[in-house]
Amino acid sequence: MANAKILIVEDERIVAKDIAKRLQNLGYVVVAAVSSGEEAIEKAAETRPDLVLMDIRLKGKIDGIKASEHIRTEFNIPVIFLTAYADEKTLQRAKVTEPFGYIIKPFDERELYAAIEVALRRRMAEEAVHVALTKEKELSELKSRFWSMVVHEFRRPMTSILASAQLLEHHSHELLEVKKREYLYLIQESVRTMENLLNDVLAVGKAEGGQLDFSPAPLDLDKFCQGLVEEMQFSADQTHHIIFINHDQCTTADLDKKLLWHILSNLLSNAIKYSSQGSNVYLELFCPDREIIFQVKDTGIGIPTAEQQYVFKPFHRGENVGKIPGTGLGLTLVKKCLDLHGGEIIVQSEVGVGTTFTVKFPFRNPAISK
Question: In the sheet that 79-83 helps form, which strands lie side by side, from edge to edge?
Answer without folding.
Answer: 29-34, 5-9, 51-55, 79-83, 101-104
